[in-house]
Amino acid sequence: MARGRIRSKLRLSHLYTFGCLRPNTLEGEEDTPHQIHGPGFSRTVFCNQPHMHKKKPLRYRSNYVSTTRYNLITFFPKSLYEQFHRAANLYFLVAAILSVFPLSPFNKWSMIAPLVFVVGLSMMKEALEDWRRFMQDVKINARKTRVHRNDGVFRYRKWKKVSVGDVVRVEKDEFFPADLLLLSSSYDDGICYVETMNLDGETNLKVKRSLEASLGLDDDESFKNFMAMIRCEDPNPSLYTFVGNLEYKRQTFPLDPSQILLRDSKLRNTTYVYGVVVFTGHDTKVMQNSTKSPSKRSRIERTMDYIIYTLLVLLILISCISSSGFAWETEFHMPKMWYLRPDAPEDLTNPISAVYAGVVHLITALLLYGYLIPISLYVSIEVVKVWQASFINQDLRMYDDESGVPAQARTSNLNEELGQVHTILSDKTGTLTCNQMDFLKCSIAGTSYGVRSSEVELAAAKQMAVDLEEHGEMSSTTTPQSQTKVYGTWDSSRTNELEVESNNPRAPVKGFGFEDNRLMNGNWLRESQPNDVLQFFRVLAICHTAIPELDEETGKYTYEAESPDEASFLAAAREFGFEFCKRTQSSVFIRERFSSSGQIVEREYKVLNLLDFTSKRKRMSVIVRDEEGQILLLCKGADSIIFERLAKNGKKYLGPTTKHLTEYGESGLRTLALAYRKLDEEEYSAWNSEFQKAKTSIGSDRDELLETGADMIEKDLILIGATAVEDKLQKGVPQCIDKLAQAGLKLWVLTGDKMETAINIGFACSLLRQGMRQICITSINQDGGSQDSKRAVKENILSQLTKAVQMVKLEKDPHAAFALIIDGKTLTYTLEDDMKYQFLALAVDCASVICCRVSPKQKALVTRLVKEGTGKTTLAIGDGANDVGMIQEADIGVGISGVEGMQAVMASDFSIAQFRFLERLLVVHGHWCYKRIAQMICYFFYKNIAFGLTLFYFEAFTGFSGQSVYNDYYLLLFNVVLTSLPVIALGVFEQDVSSEICLQFPALYQQGTKNLFFDWSRILGWMCNGVYSSLVIFFLNIGIIYSQAFRETGQTADMDAVGTTMFTCIIWAVNVQIALTMSHFTWIQHVLIWGSIAFWYLFVALYSMMPLSLSGNIYRILDEVLAPAPIYWMATLLVTVTTVLPYVTHIAYQRFLHPMDHHIIQEIKYYKRDVEDARLWTRERTKAREETKIGFTARVDAKIRYLRSKLSKKQSNLSHCSAQDAVSPRSL
User: Which UniProt keywords are given for this protein, alphabetically ordered (predicted)?
Assistant: First the structure.
């Protein structure tokens, strides 16, 4: 408690020069309030008086947040609209209405019942999925926070009941329930630290500071009589701007973004804060950045609508032919049909009104041929997709043991879309990284330290070993002794080989993954330059803004730092023996241990100035006075910034340090250069005097004066080394990205982080590599907001885009790779209509794209541009509220079940616990689901065309009478029982290859991206197969049965015998066809396929044995009519074989002469050639990789090319030298 009070008294604002602080005003002057007037600035908030906002015009939205697609009122109309948006459902709705009239050839319930069942089942699924979203909303809205009630008492209240004007108290590590105006904090000067990772993806803590006027509101009692008024801007999505005034104690104070705490950001490193609610619910900036939950449909489903339209055209065409034929028959042949009583004709058989009869018959024909349109298709697809989703949910290989979270298909509408993804748009923090930094390596005085390998190095070394073996280089060009050298070329500076484990394992330390005994336990004193090593450690321990906290359990200090990098530096300094233990208002204290004996010396360093880090400066410096009175400037920052500020005598280690930085970058590590400078008392005093004037100045040039002042002192530095920190990627991220790249997918990273951080992560996950050309598109500084200045900025950006496009197109090196890097400010212009497609054209030609400093709205806009501009399937993946927009905008949204809330998961279509599971979700489940659904739909249309056209042929054969050749029960059973279960088995269990093969041959995924199994050529092929089958089934049966005796007694077959025989042939043909289509059989498929055929015979046998009043003309048809007749069995066999013969010929031709990738793999596995010849299998795996320029495989390929070129040069030099020796006088 004592330490907490001491810490709270720190006025941390003194640490910041370039932070969120305003300059001190001169006596008698005040900050000028904002001019709040006009449209967009109408909001008025009465602080601590929420009751004032219960009536219009001050009645604002509640804090209740909903992400559901429907509510009780809108569910039925919106859901029905979605269902009848499908062409088939709309047709059957019309058909169900027409079936009520006497003209229908079927019972009305045979049309209405299937429609109600199909639509009802789909609506129930939609309701269930939306109910899950609702329950997530309930959980969020039920969170509690402390709200001021009255008389200085704060009580817990649910978030959804927080109102505009409420004063709330938020404790450390809690989320802000709404957008708040910061009034005070546990620190004396109103400072607080905020983590905005959920909003912009940044891991660095933001510093917020309250107004000086409200600092006295520092405890609960002080709010007893607090009253104030805020006039500010209306709700808007801009996260980085805020304009308003606070009217308090008869004074008006201007407000800016540094006083605003946004909903879904988290309080860090601060015990508590008080704030007043300004925006609630959907008025908050994070919700303003979100979009309405869209209704998504897969590309296959949209294509299916066009197929339905095609079949509708076919249906109308044959119905018109049928009605025309009926009118012809009525007018010219009906008078000759004595049995129809032409002397007393009915309306539909009157030759005088043939046109009327034809028009009325058109309705009958439309209903009769309706079996061309498969209504059961939608039900079957829904059932199949639910089963597929359950397989995704139950996949143990996508179950995260650490968190206990499985994968979840939150909607089953998009299963097949997973197999057609072209571009992945990913967040960084929490998605690719786990927001943990490990100090891994360092370069001190020109020597590289740290023998432990990064994840990227380990993955690349492993891949290099495989590739070298595949190319035969390990056996042909290198000896066992030289293999170590091959690996060593990956990082030639290393004194040891790549190490996975240390010889002396120690307990893991958070933030510290360094292993090298040369620096541990005081061994650094025996190094050649111990003074430089000492200075290096002191820079780590002193140059920061962190606060130490003693962990009573371990006895070690932990650090609350603004960034994970800073915390890892302090952890490293502590482990090296330089422990930062205390901070006061003007000093930092370091416990220094110089030897393994453990002797500790506590030293005080007085902090004179701190020049904090900004994205513009890219460096941080602290000026301190040590115990000897020496003034030191300690600096750390980006190498490019530090190197240009070095003194002539400070470049002693520049060469080796630069080399080490390059190697660290190639290993995917984040690097900073460290330097220092000794200052004279006079020089410092003169500089400090000028700098303090700049800090207290008032005017628009204050920031420029501060920058100039910092530049004056941050010069003539002496380089002492560099750090290499591993931004800990989530487990398996490099391997996953590499596999996705081999599958032909493109990956964009959209992050709110700084450009430097984004580039470092690009190297870490192998989206960037050494040798890849980086195209950085940035905007020039804009002076003012005039149209001319904006036009100049746009022209500059357009010029950069044009030059970059030309550079990419003119590149002749086939192995050249380009990476596009762009920031959010520039994106604001490039996403405008007159420039966005040029930006997209450049981005598409680049191997990787990284967008940094982007807002949630920009993430959604970029996703929309890629989706609409390329016309390809996009997938967005993220874990925070700032990713909701792009997750909803993409064709497929995937949420990471992270530790920072469930907003992304709530808005997603699929959720996984780790990014690495995306590999299996797409490459395995996506591939399977796409092929299953595509084959299933094609087969469905095939069987319905084969069945439905036989009705048309028979009607034409019988004079367009409108008579069905099949019994009504046959028609009902065809789609519901006899052919539905095998097709469901195809959609649920089919596998062209196993999951292991999918992962070993990632290029198989391109079958879905290229849509090889559901393009129009394949669809029309299946339709033609259906037409052919219908012709064979009808005319071959008629040819066999029509003109000869059917029984031994000489009797011919009647209509029911012909119809039952034809139907038997259909059942056999379509089930044998689906058996030939399948590649993977289990007992389930066998039972369902052959069981459907057996069920047909069982049904006919039982139905025909029923009393005559029930069975009608079908009475005893199987056992007395069909079974005894050999012609029935011969016709069934002949028709079935003839029907499937073209398909068998086609697949035989394709497999022998033009096999697809999976055909070759199936053959290799079937004949077990992968076991007999492992080299063949490895070679086939290598061929099955899509050519890629990202991922560690691309990095390894580049390294192998380098080694080969180096070897060839060496051999050419040797041969040249040999030739010279051969002709030299000495050799003679």
Answer: ATP-binding, Isopeptide bond, Magnesium, Membrane, Metal-binding, Nucleotide-binding, Translocase, Transmembrane, Transmembrane helix, Ubl conjugation
